[in-house]
Amino acid sequence: MSKMNMLKRFVVKKNEHGLLLNDGDFEAILEPGQYKRFDWQGRLTLKTCPQDSPLHDYPLERYLRQHEPALVEQYFLTLDMAENEVGLRFEDGQLKELLATDSRRLQWKGQTRQSLTRIDLAQGRRLDAELLARLNKPGIAGMDNVLLVTVPTFSVGVLRIDGVVVDLLLAGQHGFWRCGAQVVVDTVDTRRPVSDVNVRELLARGMDQHLVCMDLSEHEVGLRFEDGKLVEVLPPDSRRAYWKDQARHELQRLDLTHGQCLDADGGDGRHPPAGTGGERPGDSHPRQGQPAPESGGQLALYRRARCPWADEQAG
């Protein structure tokens, strides 16, 4: 066999790196250019890889990490995340990928300037405003690692991590890292009472500052006001909670042991109206001297529509 037949030519394009293999085993990394090698037994092959892309060969990656650390440093960006760490991969300053916790990868270096920002989830899972703005752009890989949610007006978001309520979200856009946990946001209309389940959870997590709780005994009726207007009559032995920021909530208690009649001032005929005493300590009520927000006829309509038990007792 002539020397010309034993000389093999290899070409690596300008946007590639080359892996020279001898009988399938790693021999060398070739940069862009033309190469000639003597291969009289036909054992040499060339595998080309796009620059700025992951190395999709796990056995070779493991070999390079263990035996060729200098080549790894020269030709690759090491993308190794800790168990409680996520990463942001940038190309020429543009966010290109979100990296999950406990992930490992070698990324070929190339013509673009690549960088990695690490984020410790022990400092919190909430995405900052700058990252939220970046994620609004298309073409970012790894978006399944985050939860993006928009809480509409007149609503609040109940954030649960692994089933536990950890925060309340105001109206607007929010984002959280999902990695390693179950992250869920339930949107709740603040114009409606808080459900019993949510009340218990929120109180258990020390979030009572967001709620107005109204508890009535079996001998009491409640007149609930929002911003000075009567909106609801609460039945005896009931417990309700309302979102504090939605409106100014006030409660007037009526003692049923003093009778069932509602007078024009909003009282029960014997019990004094709001602002004149008779309320429990800590109750919210209209200011003293404030005109009654509803007429006696309107209160009677409320009594028949919202308190049917009152007519039954009266009969």
Question: Could you walk me through the main structural features you see in this protein, from its secondary elements to its overall organization?
Answer:
It is a single chain. This protein is of the alpha+beta class. It has 3 domains: 3-125, no CATH class; 130-189, no CATH class; 207-314, no CATH class. Helices cover 17% and strands 39% of the residues. It has helices spanning 3-6, 58-67, 69-75, 129-135, 196-204, 296-306, 308-314, and strands spanning 7-12, 16-22, 25-30, 33-38, 44-50, 76-80, 85-91, 94-99, 104-108, 114-120, 146-151, 155-161, 164-169, 172-177, 183-189, 211-215, 220-226, 229-234, 239-243, 249-255. A 3-stranded antiparallel beta sheet has the order 3-2-5, with no helix packed on it. A 3-stranded antiparallel beta sheet has the order 8-7-10, with no helix packed on it. Strands 13-12-15 form a 3-stranded antiparallel beta sheet, with no helix packed on it. A hairpin with a 2-residue loop joins strand 17 (220-226) and strand 18 (229-234). Residues 260-301 are annotated as: Disordered.
Summarize the SSE layout with pairings.
Elements lengths: L2 H4 E6 L3 E7 L2 E6 L2 E6 L5 E7 L7 H10 L1 H7 E5 L4 E7 L2 E6 L4 E5 L5 E7 L8 H7 L10 E6 L3 E7 L2 E6 L2 E6 L5 E7 L6 H9 L6 E5 L4 E7 L2 E6 L4 E5 L5 E7 L40 H11 L1 H7 L1
Short description, anyone?
The chain has helices at residues 3-6, 58-67, 69-75, 129-135, 196-204, 296-306, 308-314, and strands spanning 7-12, 16-22, 25-30, 33-38, 44-50, 76-80, 85-91, 94-99, 104-108, 114-120, 146-151, 155-161, 164-169, 172-177, 183-189, 211-215, 220-226, 229-234, 239-243, 249-255.
